[in-house]
Amino acid sequence: MRWWAWRPYRRGTAQLSTDARGGTVGARSGRDARGPLAGLLIAALVSAACAGGGLAEPEGERPAPSRSAASPGPSSTRADSTTSVAEFEQDVADAQAIAERYWAARFKASGQRFQPIRRITPYQRAGEVSCGGQALPRNNAVYCSRGDFIAYDIAWSVAAFRQVGDAFVFYLLGHEYAHGIQVRLGINYSFTIQQELQADCMAGAYLGDSVRSGDLSLAEGDLEEFREGVAAVGDDPDQPWFAEGSHGTAEQRTDSFFRGYERSLEACDLG
User: Fold this and answer.
1) How does pLDDT run across 11-34, given as a tens digit for each residue?
2) Residue 120: beta bridge partners?
3) What is the Cα–Cα distance from 231 to 164, expressed in whole angstroms?
4) Cβ contact 193:247 at 8 Å
5) Can you tell me the distance from the alpha carbon of 242 to that of 235, in angstroms, rounded to the nearest whole number?
6) DSSP 8-state symbol, 130
7) What is the per-residue pLDDT across 36-63, written as a single tens digit (0 to 9) for each?
8) d(CA 201, CA 263)
9) Coil, strand or helix at 178
10) I want to staple 156 with a disulfide (CB 3.0 to 4.6 A). Which of 35, 60, 139, 255 is the partner?
11) Which distant-in-sequence residues (6+ apart) come within 8 Å of 184 by Cβ?
12) Within 10 Å of residue 236's Cβ, how many Cβ atoms?
């Protein structure tokens, strides 16, 4: 099981929000684009490793957590620049729903059966949630392949949401969800940096394709918020690329994300 602390960041000025035409992050049906998943077999969820990523805890007050929001429907999916815990949870639910629709369509187009990640679980204390018998730490978000779930420290995540903006919630969920897709496709690299940069590319593809299909609407400046957010979670300059837990430099992570965003899954070396 592995997890890693991402570098601190600062809040960007761009927000994922209602645009001038009144469009929001919506639940409209998207295209079933045929992509590079064709011919790949879905692996059984038996990996003993846990893969994931996190952000270093921001400074400032830690908000109290609240219960998770209901799954969004076609008329309720939304994203804007507000910062309450309830709105954060709604953004998580929206990002999850869009990710599930996105990957279900890609697997279907490849003639494969898609199984959504079992659950997304917030936690409040270190050790409250475990992965393969190992307690998850505070101030992190991870995908656990042993239990097929995503878990995140809710107080830390809400603070990140308030500093970076709600567009970053969609990237974070997309990155962790990509780790679940890697498990389903049986992808296992020798170095964690390879796994992480591919997950960044896949998160970019999920977001870019969802925008192009009409499932997701971005306001002016949101792409720059993605750029700032992804760059801010790059490894420290002295982090060896081959070290366990390396994610990639700010430039590498940004390049991987936008390669996927602009060119879809074909850019992500899925086979």
Assistant:
1) 332 223 323 222 233 222 233 333
2) 150
3) 12
4) yes
5) 12
6) E
7) 443 333 222 222 233 444 332 222 222 2
8) 10
9) helix
10) 139
11) 42, 43, 45, 114, 115
12) 9
Burial of 21 (0-12, 13-18, 19+ CB in 10 A): exposed
Residue with tokens 């846990």: 50
- Distances in Å between the Cα of 4 and the Cα atoms of 67, 166, 216 are 26, 22, 29
Q: Distance between CA 209 and CA 201 in Å, rounded?
A: 12
**Lookup result for tokens 């929000």:** 17
| Cross-strand bridge partners of residue 134 | 131
| DSSP string computed for 182-207 | HHHTT---SSHHHHHHHHHHHHHHHH
Contacts of 59 (CB under 8 A, 6+ apart): none
How far is 105 from 259, CA to CA, in rounded Å? 21
Half-sphere exposure of 246 (CA within 13 A, CB side): 18
Query: Could you give the CA distance from residue 135 to residue 261 in angstroms, rounded to a whole number?
Result: 34
Q: Residues near 202 by Cβ (< 8 Å), separated by ≥ 6?
A: 174, 175, 178, 181, 182, 260, 265, 268, 270
